[in-house]
Write a structure and sequence with these properties.
single chain, about 290 residues, mainly alpha, two-stranded antiparallel sheet, 12 helices, about 75% helix, about 5% strand
Amino acid sequence: MSYWTIRRRDVLTGYVFILPQLAGVALFVLLPVGMAIWYSLNDWNVFTGQQTFVGAANYAALADDPQLPKVLLATTLFSGGVVVLNIALGLLIAVLLNRKFRGVTFFRTLFFSPVVVSVVAWTLVWGFLLQDNGAINGLFGGGPNWLQHGDTAMISVIFTQVVRSVGVNMVLFLAALQGVPGELYEAARIDGASSRSVFGRITLPLISPTILLTVIVTIVGALQSFAQIAVLTAGGPELSTTVLVYNVFQQAFKFNDIGYGSTLALMLLSFVMVLTLLQWQLRRKWVFYEE
């Protein structure tokens, strides 16, 4: 009997097809995470190249870092604001544009167009617009330097991030809305259901898988937002916009503390994993197709 049976050939073919993906995960995910864990256990002098094993010292330093509470607060405010506004506005715009009217294609393109613009170019333009003598204050007849005050700086970075990225969620929600069977709406109208009831009892449940996807993607994207902070505020003023991912950059490459920067990076990775797993577990309670 031949060793290479049809089943074994099929299994081998499957592994050959997924090998590039497995290699990519190993090279660009598992290897960097493993290196970050190793660096977090060492004190690395990047100038001399000398590494000293310090064990859990970098992890213990998290509890003694006076800046960490402010960084975590800024991360929570930024990520929370971006996620809530992005999901809410994306769904609202999708609902408004899920209709047939003159110019609908133009408005869909208008809201999606910022997505294809370079992040740095987009942020630089908004940096000029938000100055005390910029176009925003000129439009309203005066105002503060939005990027130099703690409260307005956070609002500004959230606003620029949402305006640029809301088009992605709009497209996803629009595709989901167009996939809802029209006969369900017809049946609801015949039964005399109000628009609010139709949206809450038909539309939202049927697009709940897309809502789950957009929430996960938006949270991960918000926690990884770096260029907007770096270009607009550089974490200031007074750490008010220093989110965790920007603090990782500062510690590792500005202060040359690779070990502590790697520790913060692993903390960020842990937050992303916990939030993603939590949402994945809760999906059974509100996603329509789950039993």
